[in-house]
Amino acid sequence: MDDQLYKIGTVSKLTGISVERLRAWERRYGMHPTERAGRTRFYDGEQLDRLKKIKALLDRGQTIGQLARLRPAEIDRRLGVAPRPSQSGLRVGLVGADLVLAERDAGGARLDVHGRWASPESFDAHLDILPELDVVAVLLPTLEPERIERYLDAVRDAALVFAYRYATEADLQTATAFGVTLMPWPASWSAIEEACLAQPHGRTSSVGPSRRFTDDELLHIAMAAPRGDCECARSLVDLIGALNAFTAHAERCAAGNPEHPLTASSAQAARAELEEALQVFVQRDALIHTHD
Q1: Burial 166-198 (b: 16+ CB within 10 A, else e)
Q2: Residues 248-272: tens digit of each pLDDT
Q3: Residue 120, C-beta contacts closer than 8 angstroms, at least 6 positions apart
Q4: Which residue from 62, 71, 107, 251 has the highest number of Cβ atoms inside 10 Å of its Cβ?
Q5: Are 14 and 47 in contact (CB under 8 A)?
Q6: Nearest in space to 244 (alpha carbons), one of 226, 217, 224
Q7: Selecting from 1.10.300.10, 1.10.1660.10, 3.40.50.2300, 2.40.50.1020, what CATH number does the domain 4-77 have?
């Protein structure tokens, strides 16, 4: 279980829910924080994730009165994260209304669909609360290499399959260089299934040290770090964030190019050194509140 705790102000910044509203929900609906120290409220990672999902549903027009006492599985169902049995065990996300309809009409269960989003814009709006996915299949109205590049950066642990209605020859050449699976639309549901099943379980082209700090943790550390003569902790957060982005870029450049002089694992090793230094500041200044 996640033992990190977040102050109410940090939770407000990470979720977009005001401090006043969080306090009102506590009074009216019993949505209590994990701990309180005097007047300071602390929320754990599970509560933070739940609040993010609730905010996403509020943005869709639902009310807190409807959501406050729902079980986690029901909240996921309302978000469109509804797992069902499959033969493959491959966790798939579908992005695009026609893909979702094709799945429904086929009635098959070869894929374990964990998330369904009506459009790329809807998917983009919920990148911070995605379920764990092995493959994301996306239907694009027109093939946009810039959007593919954004997905490669944002969905780093999943393989990507892109169906497209229209594409120029130049866009096809650029998109092919990214190493993702491309297919013209319309396509049969069985073709979509085959494309997803052909993917490895996640993009595993590079192996290196895993991240010590999540994006939420880095943001929390940056906000909690003391200001003054020494702002090394904040500077380390900036450098680690830049290396996280560069790691994804290096992985893409090195994919399929054995002569590329830099691999993602090299960037990951450099990041690990900076994370080790940041951990010293975290422990010394208690930048992340944890249970003893």
Answers
A1: ebeeebeebbeebbbbbeebebebeebbebbee
A2: 777 666 655 656 666 666 777 788 8
A3: 95, 96, 138, 140, 147
A4: 251
A5: no
A6: 217
A7: 1.10.1660.10
